[in-house]
Write a structure and sequence with these properties.
182 residues, three-stranded antiparallel β-sheet, two-stranded antiparallel sheet, 13% strand
Length: 182
């Protein structure tokens, strides 16, 4: 009798342990997405911007510009320097003024100075981006509170506001002032 009770107890304990260890989650499937599906799912970032330019130099500079904008939005001075250094290598000699600003961006680690240089770069590079765009859409945005309410512009590849001048302090400050579509 004692042996039966012990066997029954072990059996009952085993059933309880077994059923409690079962995972009641629904089955998950793993699939491999095509590059097109990944692009749609991730949205638009500097890595997969949907803009085309009439020349390769402007396309490379645009890509680096977006990386700098994202780094400023994330308050990552080191990433600003890295992306700026890549940008310097993209310039031809005919754009010496823009190249000099990019060089300054790559040499400073002070975030506020980087933001000032970014605003200056944006002011001077904006017409180049607008004129060289051959396909897609870019957005010219404005933050009225940047630099003690003087305001500053920036360009982006998406309509959503991600302010590079205030980062996480006021990430949505600003508005789209111009949509350039070709």
């Amino acid at each position: 009798m004692k042996n039966r009770f012990l066997s029954f107890s072990v059996f009952l304990f085993s059933v309880i342990v077994f059923t409690s260890c079962l995972d009641n989650k629904a089955k998950q499937s793993v699939g491999i997405d095509t590059p097109e599906e990944v692009k749609k799912a991730e949205g638009k970032t500097a890595d997969i911007a949907d803009q085309d330019f009439i020349d390769g130099m402007t396309g490379k500079i645009w890509h680096n510009y977006l990386e700098i904008k994202i780094a400023l939005t994330n308050a990552d001075a080191g990433q600003v320097q890295d992306a700026s250094q890549s940008m310097v290598a993209s310039f031809s000699e005919e754009r010496a003024e823009l190249k000099a600003i990019a060089q300054q961006l790559s040499e400073t680690s002070e975030l506020e100075k980087q933001r000032e240089l970014f605003a200056s770069f944006t002011e001077k590079a904006g017409p180049m981006f607008e004129d060289a765009l051959s396909g897609g859409t870019i957005y010219k945005k404005f933050c009225p509170m940047a630099f003690n309410n003087e305001g500053a512009y920036w360009y982006a590849d998406i309509e959503e506001i991600n302010n590079p001048y205030f980062g996480d302090k006021m990430p949505n400050c600003g508005s789209v002032k111009k949509t350039i579509k070709k």
